[in-house]
Specification:
Blueprint (H helix, E strand, L loop, with lengths): L2 H19 L2 E3 L6 E3 L8 H7 L11 E2 L12 H4 L9 E3 L2 E2 L2 E2 L2 E4 L2 E4 L2 E4 L4 E2 L12 E7 L8 E7 L12 E5 L7 E4 L11 E2 L5 E10 L5 E12 L2 E13 L8 E5 L1
Amino acid sequence: MSHESRRRRSVSGRVLLLLAMMLPVLIPGTAIARTIYGSATGHGYAELFAGQPGRVFTAPAYSERGHSVRNIHVSKEEYGREKIEDPRARFQPYIDGQDVDVWLAYDGVTVGERSFRFDDARTFGEETSATHHPMYADLHVAPRHGDRPALFCIESHPGDEDAGVSEIPLFLLVDPLSARARLYRLPGLFTSCAAVTATPDGQLSFPAVHRVRDENGQPIGARLIDHRIDGERFVETGRLRTVRFVDPPDPFRFVVDSD
């Protein structure tokens, strides 16, 4: 079999898997067929966010999953790996008409000559910037578009041993090349950079996800409440989505009850 044939078969297989994951099914106890998001091993929220209007980030511009930025100031004895000379991950995206040097480290990100510490990020609700810093990270880049400023989004990925975690560190750097640049830590429960949206006039929004539990305390669903960024504040937009887990307490396969 030729390389091209194998590539086509691989692409076809991925398309069929995605379609199978999103086939409408009849939910027990109802007469309504709803789409199930997620597979036995997949992440349904990525599928949900991929279809929303105004999505800002589509795919990471750069991925450093093989480079642990957590090695900074960490000894071999603590993590069982050799200490490297420069523990930062370097990216060089093209944005706003220029190549920009971006350095990602365990405790922050540097854009050109300016550094932004994760501990100093404006946080949403009870998010704590000082904990769960990125270990493996994707950098998403969105150039300036109309009234919307340029954006960097830093999405952490756990190590293989933590592949099933529900919450990740998620940072959004707004207008990174200007004096008005601001770093935010967004809610990381079930979300990703793909969840960030923008209106035509440049207003940024994102969902905060809250688990819904039954009378026994078992998670049975979630509420996604959209918020917009207003300077130093996070303001509810009025949009509420509710999802119901198909196999509680597994949160990664669900149907959307309301939007």
